[in-house]
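Possible regression after last week's pipeline update?

I re-ran a chain I had predicted before the update to compare outputs. Posting the input and the new output here so someone can diff against the archived version. Not blocking, just want to make sure nothing changed silently.
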Amino acid sequence: MPGLRGLSVSEFRATPTDAPDNVSGVAMEFATETERDEFLRETEAAFATRRFTNSADAFDTVKAYVVERAARR
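New output (post-update):
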């Protein structure tokens, strides 16, 4: 539809946790807060202009990105 922009990933939140939940979220471990903050900046930049047609697509795309990044570390 003309003008349909889709959903942004701005609805996602990064939250520190002691109980990771990879079912309704995705968990990563960082050695330092600086490393975590850098990862969040990179992730935000990677998805700043992306739009998705539905929240499931957005979630799966962001989760895949995080899992791939974690595997490269």
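Follow-up from reviewer: compared with the archived run. The chain has two helices and no strands. Marking as no regression found.
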